[in-house]
Amino acid sequence: MEAIPARARVYVACVVLGALCCLLPLPTVRTPWWAVLLLAALYAGCERVAARWRFTGTFYPVLLAGAFLLPPPAAALVAVPGALLSGVEQRPRWLRRLWRAAQLVVGVWVAARVHGALDGRDAVGASDFPYALAPAGAAVLAFCLALTVLDGGILAFAVGVPPAPLGQRGRVPVRRAWRGLFLRSLAPVVVHGLAGLMMAVLWRSPYGPVAALLVLLPMCVSWWVFAQYHRERAAHQATIRALVQAVDIKDGYTRGHSERVGQASMMIARELGMPDERVEVLRFAGILHDVGKLGVPTRLLRKDGPLTPEERRVIELHPEYGHEMVRGISFLGEARAAVLHHHERLDGSGYPYGLVGGQIPESARVVAVADAFDAMTSTRCYSRARPVPVALEELERCAGTQFDPRMVTALVRALSRHGWRPAVTSDEARPPRPRPSAPSRPGARR
């Protein structure tokens, strides 16, 4: 069983008490119990289906429809059975289920209160769909804000007690716990809120609850497609991790190099103003740039002395080996070109194809700078780590001939803003050998 800090248990207990306070007025409120039971059963069924599909999201349309149709305590009750019966993989399961139930009770109660205060239920009952949008939108924003506040609190207090939306491990600093949570969760919650509003309007229309349930069919289909996409993406990422670990095991001197090149590539991409999707692809490109070393004999990768011309030609095949390995991973996109061309140089002296200038893909030019920077700031068997300013001076000196000046400038700006803490990649117990007079390895001439 995973250890849950005491401060996290106290936080969960406080949220549970708050949820109970939301439900306390239930006996005194006029409640259509048949609607509560139907919506609660429907939400519980959706949660069980989600657990079967191994999808970690929550199906909010039913909960928000309850917030638009029912008094706040009754609407909050709809979430309890489904949350308590939801599938949870991590232990302690009872605490995670209790946390999720309390969180949803508070969120739905807040949404229902806001919706009722703006006379939203009257607009829904009169089927005034355009006029129902404003109170429903306010209720959705309140719901999203309540979940964000509670999620940020648990991230600040513990190691992911809920099914953590950020996948965080380790305690998150308080100043960062809520950063970006609201904006990341707003778009899906708004989509679910529109579906919940359609359910509520149809529920109060002459067509009744049966028509309202039909709204869920396209939502369930899209949900299933989304779950399949995430499952496939998770499988690809697991494959990437396995490949990188295999390279690190085979070439012990560069252990951790791939992850740092991925980090530096991401810093360059962000400094250039690339969209988040492309930044992620370039991070994958940096992580996988040396995966082709799996096809190179280990004795060549671990050779301490200078390489013969024949041995150099064998090592210079690793970009092509890597491209063959990753070309079937469709979501990598331009990262595959970076794996193939990250040793090309602007002046045409690189390999494997000797491309010149703009012929080299932009992703490869990003990874080339990141790769050279980490190689210079890390200790290897044939060279000691250089200080970061010295490495940047070398990059600037080679800009225009070996490296793209835009990428070098972007890395310099990013490092001046965020800093860099390079790790030693060689075995510290082994003293570095004198650097050969001539470059002993492809790409070592930085």
TrEMBL record:
SUPFAM superfamilies: HD-domain/PDEase-like (SSF109604)
Region named Disordered: 422-446
Residue ranges crossing the lipid bilayer per the database entry: 6-26, 63-86, 98-118, 138-161, 181-203, 209-227
PROSITE patterns with a match to the protein in the record: HD, HD_GYP
Keywords: Membrane, Transmembrane, Transmembrane helix
Limits of the HD domain: 254-376
Ranges of residues in domain HD-GYP: 232-427
InterPro entries reported in the protein's UniProt record: Cyclic_di-GMP/3'3'-cGAMP_PDE (IPR052020), HD/PDEase_dom (IPR003607), HD_domain (IPR006674), HD_GYP_dom (IPR037522), HDIG_dom (IPR006675)
Name of the protein described by the UniProt record: HD-GYP domain-containing protein
Organism the protein comes from: Streptomyces plumbiresistens
